[in-house]
Amino acid sequence: FGSSSRFDADQVHDIFPCLPSCTQARMAEEAPAWDSTLEEWMLAEGYCCAAALANLEDGAMYAAAPAEGEAGWALLFKEGDYEGEILQEDDTMKKITVNEVASLWEVGQMKSMDQRPENGLWIAGNKYNLVSCKEEDVGSDKVLLSVAANKATKCTVLIATTKTQIIVGMANEEKGQKAGNATKAILAFAEYLLGLGY
């Protein structure tokens, strides 16, 4: 193409149709940089206590904040399959196998509450009850925002999906964090990512 050629994002995607996958791979390779970007956009104002990025394609998290001591990972992710329990309609508990990557992927695919995962959203070993899923305006784009809560942890988890990414934000009621402010932070970060083509 020559060194003086310039293309906009749509032209690049037309020329390189694998771009979403290539872009996701590049983002994952730059995970340490994304950790600090998450801290800047999602944590700096105190609206969230933790945040993460995952690929929309497979739900795999690759960056988390706070980065120090991998605290974000501890607050937002439990690795591998593990046993969990869900409440049945007859008030009995049912044992299930939980995989948080699959759980996050399912929520990332939701377009409405009718599509919520049968076993709920699982974050760091805790089941969160999905309470809403709606489209939000972000600049000239739209993102889907899902909100889930857990009474025991007193935390709210917000999940926004962009073209290629799942953004996870956690607000902790005990730290004075409110879901409304966390929503502002996650939507601003979603707009930033969309502006970069993600």
Structural class by sheet pairing and helices: alpha+beta
Strand order of the largest sheet: 2-1-9-8-7-6-5
Total helices: the number is 6
The largest sheet, given as strand count, sense and whether it forms a barrel, is: 7 strands, antiparallel
Write down the secondary-structure element order.
Answer: HHHEEHEEHEEEEEH
Distance between the termini: 24 Å
State the helicity in percent bands.
Answer: 25-40%
Total number of beta strands: 9
Average pLDDT over all residues:
87
Could you explain how this protein is built, in words?
The chain is an alpha+beta fold and 198 residues long. It contains 6 helices and 9 strands, in the order αααββαββαβββββα. The strands form 2 sheets. The chain has a 7-stranded antiparallel beta sheet, sandwiched between helices. Strands 3-4 form a two-stranded antiparallel sheet. A hairpin with a 2-residue loop joins β5 (121-123) and β6 (126-138). α3 (31-43) crosses α6 (179-195). The model is unreliable at 1-26 (pLDDT under 50).
Q: What does this entry show, briefly?
A:
With 198 residues, the chain is of the alpha+beta class.
Descriptive key words:
disordered N terminus, single chain, 6 helices, 198 residues, alpha+beta
Topology record:
Blueprint: H1 9-15, H2 19-29, H3 31-43, E1 50-55, E2 61-65, H4 71-76, E3 81-87, E4 93-99, H5 100-109, E5 121-123, E6 126-138, E7 141-150, E8 155-161, E9 165-172, H6 179-195
Antiparallel strand pairs: 1-2, 1-9, 3-4, 5-6, 6-7, 7-8, 8-9
Helix pairs in contact: 3-6
